[in-house]
Amino acid sequence: METNAITCTIDRVSGLSEKEFYNKYVKGSLPVIVTDKGEWTKKEKFTTDYFKTNYNHLTRTVNGKTYTLSEIIDLCEASTPENKAPYPNIFDVQRDFPEYLDDIPEMFYGKSNRLQSSLLPDYIAKRTNKRELFFGGKGCSFPTLHIDYLGVHTQLVQIIGEKDFILYSPDQTPCFYPDKIKTNQSPVDITNPDYEKYPLFKNAKAIRTTLKPGEMLFIPSGWWHTTYIHNFNLTYAIDHVNSYNWDTFMEENYLAAKKSHPKIAWIAKVYKVIMGRLFNLKENLFD
Ligand SMILES: [Fe+2]
Questions:
Q1: What domains are defined for the chain?
Q2: Which of 2, 77, 89, 209 fits a 20 to 30 Å CA distance from 123?
């Protein structure tokens, strides 16, 4: 996928310590690719034959049509830019592949993930995507340039195939003309931008990178991104909330609650403060 935006680079590192990860990339709000966190992806359980033999009872509905997992895999293997497989095909690891929970590290960096805590109320937890597998095929791309919902960080590991990521820093948000209702989505088609309608997009500076099998990409909270797939593809993703993006996460929950349950939305504000302090205390003492 070609984009007209100017391109910057991304660090590709190994041997990164938790402290370096937090200080440089989380606090610095910088994406990074880590090359030594994917040994587990080489297991036989992550091959298409294994999925087709053992998990064909799973189905997914994409664009109104329901497919078995074997059908999705076959369509993704046959996909071309002219005749694309349905996308995205997302499976919840906890619900659909519980036997994989021990094989896939819960997270690759970060001592704790507040989304995994039993202290997080169900009504908030169920709004986030926790641990997911995405199947895709050549020519598929994510439908929109977006920020991940509710201000979560995301950690992604490429299991099969290669995937391009096109990333834009949060300070460039005006260049993307966020949708007035779905404020985490941009109407700009970055492959064919309409500069008359979206002139500021000319100034946008992208990081464009290709994630290879076994590599982990960290996308910090608030970064705009989209993807493009070169070949049969399987990616794992986990959402991540820690002390750094807790306030953003709860503020987004408050704004969402204000639309659906205006009378009780204030609870999210109280929870943000009280639970934020408790999480901080717990993480400082025990993590
Ligand atoms: Fe995303």
A1: 6-242 (2.60.120.650)
A2: 89
Task: Give me the DSSP letters along 77-139.
Answer: HH--SSSPPP--EEEEHHHH-GGGTTTS-S-SS-S--GGG-TTS-HHHHTTS--EEEEEE-TT
Distance 281 CA to ligand 1 centre (A): 30
Helix or strand holding residue 246 (H, E): helix 246-260
Question: How many angstroms does the Cα of residue 150 sit away from the middle of ligand 1?
Answer: 11
Chain centroid, CA 102 distance in Å: 21
Strands (E), the chain: 6-8, 11-13, 32-34, 59-62, 65-68, 89-92, 131-136, 146-147, 153-160, 163-168, 205-211, 216-219, 224-229, 233-240
Q: Are 268 and 257 in contact (CB under 8 A)?
A: yes
Distance 286 CA to ligand 1 centre (A): 31
Report how far ligand 1's centroid is from the alpha carbon of 234 (Å).
15
Is the bond preceding residue 199 a cis peptide, omega within 30 degrees?
no
Token code pair at residue 122:
């169900």
33 C-alpha to center of ligand 1: Å? 16
- Dihedral of CA 80/84/88/90: which sign? negative
Query: Is the distance from CB of 204 to CB of 261 less than 8 angstroms?
Result: no
pLDDT recorded at residue 1 = 52
Q: How far is the CA of 148 from the centre of ligand 1 (A)?
A: 5
**Confidence grade of residue 129 (pLDDT, cut at 50, 70, 90):** low
